[in-house]
UniProtKB/TrEMBL annotation:
Entry-linked InterPro entries: 6-blade_b-propeller_TolB-like (IPR011042)
Basic and acidic residues composition-biased segments: 253-265
Alphabetical list of Gene3D superfamilies matching this protein: TolB, C-terminal domain
SUPFAM superfamilies: YWTD domain (SSF63825)
Claim: Calcium is one of the keywords in the record: no
Key words of the record: Membrane, Transmembrane, Transmembrane helix
Organism classification: Bacteria, Candidatus Magasanikiibacteriota
Residue span of region Disordered: 246-265
Name the UniProt record assigns to this protein: PPM-type phosphatase domain-containing protein
Length: 712
């Protein structure tokens, strides 16, 4: 496909009264092959009606800044150079808008090959003339657009210009003299150059004191001479074009001749610009020199004054050389001279002095008031922009959720949440607005986090019968749930069939803090704080001590019985030991790990054939036959923080983790993908967990109460 060339033609008429109407028109060519390939042309058209010279200068400077910024800024993955430049200009836009004294209309844009991007302010004319069924039609781009406000350029429009179509921008008053039909007829019968010359001729003859300007953009195939379009017109339309005459002029006097027009079509000079960093360094250096000079003068005068004061005080204190009286007299003379000076002033001078002082106070107060008002308005506008940006991210996240892009939605919601955290809360309205925004973000995050707030049923309250109960953990054997804690000398047995609670003393075997029930459901094995082992027998209902031979200086953090063998996590020796059963308990055991893995902070383990080890930092380590395997938690937010318990078995599908910090139960598949999270408003500090996956029920111990809830 051959590259197509851009054809830009301008028409410009300068009026006789620049204060009544002033037009700035600028077209910039790419300066080199890189800009030709990646940037293309820059164009700008602006009209100020009833403005002043300062506003015109500010507008010209703004256009130059946009041009320079566009050509010197590189595109990013998310935004192109034009959008980045306009965002920067919008942040400074209040400088121009606050100075604005007249009506202001403007179009800024770029075109690279057939791709056009533009933005506007006010009500400029932006029209597209295109061929349809061998006939030209006109589309007014801004016909249904609201007038922009608050920002200089509130939106960017983009599109593509096809061969032999036309894109015209013009100042609003052009439409008073060139109708849409007249424009279509002109472009149909003439080339772009001839059309722009013809329109300029019509506008030049008006002599009404107004300035007019516009640009006609079309696309021509590369290496192909631009020709007038060969669209045939009917006889009536041809006659109309031939007989078109300019409207009569408002004034009979000839217009004043303009000295020069500097804002029209011009090539972009390829020259070296100082980098932004160098400019910052230069300005910083100048400011630093000025600051240091001023500071030096102030310090010099201050120290001279302090020196004189110290010298005077020294003489007053010591009367050195008998000069005390002279110093006192000098001070009195100074005060007296100032009093006499004021006294001798004429009445009119005193009045003028007081008036000057009063006016100075009023002037200073006015400046302070205006600056405060300006600052408040800017803060209000910034607040509106911030909240709108949050709403936009929320909307984009909801759209991503609809299309199944949960990761993008999650990132957008997190960005919005961070922006909400930085919102000010200076009044009740802002506090309410912040709560409203945070509520919307939180609800969407809960959906992505799959966080289910469940309503639980309290099936047992051990503190009701035993006020001193300090239960922390749960164990289950058959239809019996046992609650216990290292600081409680009793265990509490809850019968799930009869709902009866039975209390049992175990003072001879204190400090029970971990337990595990084998798959055979023939016993519950307890671990004590002293690294001892105790066994509860469902037949006798008694807890009895058993022997286990641990490694020297061992500290056991958890145990698990699998295939009649007891696995114990020894954090002090950084090892997992496997113990075989004996008649009196368990043997010394053997080291099971075959890889060098740090498990000093391991808190819980579960085995389903593979071994899953939970660490206090939220990591889950997976081992197969003693060798560590790769295992990563995916899709979980927030990350695990100080979890206390992990549970699974070979007949279970999922991993279950209890985390008191965020008061939740996390469900993962055995590849690490997060499936569900459960929390409850009634939980305060959940410490124990029993999972009945077959019946889809989870039991949670929280403050001596057993909560029961169903899972999905």
């Amino acid at each position: 496909m051959s590259k197509r060339m851009v054809d830009l033609r301008e028409f410009f008429v300068e009026g006789g009264d620049n204060k009544k109407s002033h037009v700035l028109l600028q077209i910039t060519e790419p300066a080199n092959s890189y800009e030709q390939e990646n940037k293309g042309y820059f164009f700008a058209l602006a009209e100020i009606n009833g403005g002043d010279d300062e506003q015109v200068q500010l507008l010209q400077q703004m256009i130059d800044d946009i041009e320079t910024g566009y050509y010197e800024t590189k595109d990013t993955d998310e935004k192109d150079a034009f959008e980045l430049t306009l965002e920067y200009i919008n942040r400074r836009g209040h400088l121009f808008l606050n100075k604005r004294s007249g009506d202001f209309n403007c179009v800024i844009g770029t075109i690279n090959r057939d791709k056009i991007s533009f933005s506007y302010h006010g009500k400029p004319l932006i029209k597209v003339i295109f061929a349809k069924r061998d006939k030209y039609e006109l589309y007014n781009v801004l016909e249904n657009e609201d007038e922009s406000s608050g920002q200089l350029f509130s939106a960017i429009m983009q599109g593509e210009i096809k061969e032999n179509d036309f894109f015209q921008i013009a100042t609003p008053h052009v439409s008073d003299h060139i109708s849409d039909r007249q424009l279509i007829n002109t472009l149909s019968a003439r080339s772009s150059r001839q059309s722009s010359e013809y329109i300029q001729k019509i506008l030049s003859s008006l002599r009404d004191g107004l300035s007019y300007g516009g640009i006609i953009i079309s696309i021509q195939p590369k290496n192909k001479r631009v020709k007038p379009l060969s669209k045939e017109l009917d006889e009536e339309e041809t006659k109309e074009i031939i007989e078109e005459k300019p409207k009569p002029a408002v004034h009979a006097d000839p217009p004043k001749k303009a000295e020069s027009v500097e804002t029209n079509y011009r090539p972009r000079e390829e020259k070296e610009y100082d980098s932004v960093f160098n400019m910052i360094l230069v300005n910083l250096g100048r400011s630093l020199v000025l600051l240091l000079t001023t500071l030096f003068k102030l310090l010099k005068n201050f120290f001279v004054l302090i020196g004189k004061a110290i010298l005077g005080l020294f003489i007053l204190a010591t009367n050195k050389g008998g000069q005390r009286a002279m110093v006192i007299q000098s001070f009195n003379d100074f005060i007296a001279s100032k009093k006499q000076y004021i006294k001798n002033l004429p009445i009119i001078s005193k009045i003028l002095f007081l008036l000057t002082l009063l006016l100075a106070v009023i002037f200073a107060g006015s400046i302070i008031y205006l600056n405060i008002t300006k600052s408040i308005r800017q803060q209000q506008q910034d607040y509106i922009n911030q909240t709108q940006a949050i709403e936009d991210k929320k909307t984009a996240a909801e759209a991503s959720m609809i299309y199944g892009d949960d990761k993008k939605a999650f990132d957008l919601l997190k960005e919005a949440q961070s922006m909400i955290d930085s919102l000010p809360m200076k009044n009740q309205a802002q506090e309410e607005r912040k709560k409203e925004l945070m509520s919307g973000i939180t609800e969407n995050l809960k959906i992505l986090q799959k966080l289910n707030t469940v309503t639980t049923e309290i099936i047992a309250d051990f503190s009701a019968d035993q006020a001193s109960a300090q239960t922390e953990k749960l164990a289950r054997i058959n239809d019996m749930i046992i609650a216990y804690g290292p600081n409680d000398l009793f265990v509490y047995k809850y019968d799930m069939n009869t709902n009866v609670i039975e209390k049992k003393d175990h003072q001879t075997i204190p400090n029970l803090f971990k337990s595990n029930t084998p798959k055979e459901q023939d016993k519950v094995v307890f671990l004590t704080k002293e690294n001892g082992i105790a066994v509860y027998s469902p037949e006798s209902g008694v807890i009895s001590s058993k022997e286990i031979f641990n490694a020297e200086n061992s500290v056991l953090s958890d145990i698990f019985v699998y295939s009649q063998k007891l696995y114990a996590v020894d954090t002090a020796n950084n090892e997992i030991y496997r113990h075989n059963p004996t008649q009196l308990g368990y043997d010394k055991g053997s080291a099971w790990l075959k890889t060098d893995t740090d498990i000093h902070d391991a808190v819980s383990l579960a085995i389903d054939g593979d071994l899953f080890l939970l660490k206090s930092d939220g990591q889950i380590l997976k081992f197969v036959s003693g060798y560590q395997q790769e295992f990563t938690i995916a899709g979980l937010d927030p990350k695990l923080e100080n979890p206390t318990e992990i549970w699974t078995y070979n007949n279970l599908k999922y991993l279950y983790i209890l985390e008191p910090t965020h008061k939740r139960v996390v469900v993962l598949d055995k590849n690490g993908q997060m499936l569900q999270q459960y929390t409850s408003d009634s939980w305060q500090n959940p410490t124990g967990m029993i999972v009945d996956e077959e019946n889809k029920v989870i039991y949670i111990l929280d403050n001596n109460k057993i909560h029961r809830f169903g899972t999905q």
